[in-house]
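# nightly structure sweep
# worker-07 picked up a monomer target from the shared queue
# config: single-sequence mode, recycle default, output format = structure tokens
# input follows
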Amino acid sequence: MTAVLEPDAAQRGILQAMLHGSTAFGDLEGLDEHIRSTPNEFAVVIGPSVPSEAAAELAQWARVHRPDLGVILLRHDVDSAALSLALRSGMREVVAARDLASITTAVQRARSVANAIGQTIMDEAQAAAEFARAQAAAEIAQAAAVAQAEAEAPRGKVLTVFSTKGGVGKSLVATNLGVSLATSGHTVCLVDLDVNSGDVAIMLQLSPQRTINDLVGFNGVIDAEGISSILTRHSDNLSVVAAPVRIDSPDQASQDDVARLIDALRRMVDFVVVDTSGMFDDLALCALDRSDCIVLVGTLDIPSLKALKLATSTLEVLNFPKSTWRFVLNRADGKVGLTVDEYEKTLGLKADSSLVSSREVLAAVNRGEALVTAYPNHPNSKALVSFAKSVAGSIGGPANSTESTPSSRKSSGSRLRLRRA
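# output follows
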């Protein structure tokens, strides 16, 4: 379509009659409304009666906002002033008002240019859309590749040794479980989360230079390289993240630090064995949330039975499935008026392993050596080694799956309910 702007009615009639299908206007207001509402308009013929300033203003607007719109200026005399005006304002052509054939030709050229510009705009839009689609596809593919890499990355298993009563042999079980797994060829990291009185390093005769509280200095960036710097090596297959050697340490590892530590260790070793404090504190809950196996430890006495019963009730409230629980009964041979059957019936759990009272246990602890290596033929050593093999077999050893275990899906809401209880 073509629009004509010409205040003089006679001249406007001539132009409209010559340019079939054109729309003629006698003022800028009508033309302006027409152009803004007609996106397919390709040419505006400005008649000779339109002042130069108004013609230039219209052309400058079209150059910026409608580059496909060709502005053709008609003048009675096509002199240097008219040409200069057209050049400055971006008009497409200047034609003599009496040259009707040239006017028609100029309009046809404006149509061709508008079509070319329109095609270019469409091509650019299509290219931009294709680029956006390709970029989105690349981002999706990259995300899928990362997810697949994480899914295929070996993931170690987390074993958390837990009890809500001290003195029941929790650290004994944790250290010997870790040593047994390491001796059988697995890579193992023992993590001591009893930050106030952890004994794992002492029980293995280790002198740690760095402890779990050094995680604070990592500022949340906890990776394999950083973790390696705080490990204390026990053997080729066994390392330890030790508890603080001072209870007045100014820096305390946070729950988030411990969560990142355990998550990273799962990608570094076959088994992460966690020793906990005797309470449901934030660090213990953090480990329990990530556990493939929860090893409960108790002794054959009423206080221990009461504490362990409360612990199992709490685990049930927090929806930790019983299928992940294992129970070790320590000092199961005690003649204290309470039988193993009575203990198990009251607790609602069968012992997966039973240990007897023995002076060799304390002797090994005092020597800073695991019982399973100090006295490999001792009944407790054999029981612990067998228990370690059973646990490793039941949870499948190192896995190539990122699917969360039931216990790893606990929410912070569960922890909050626990604190309020």
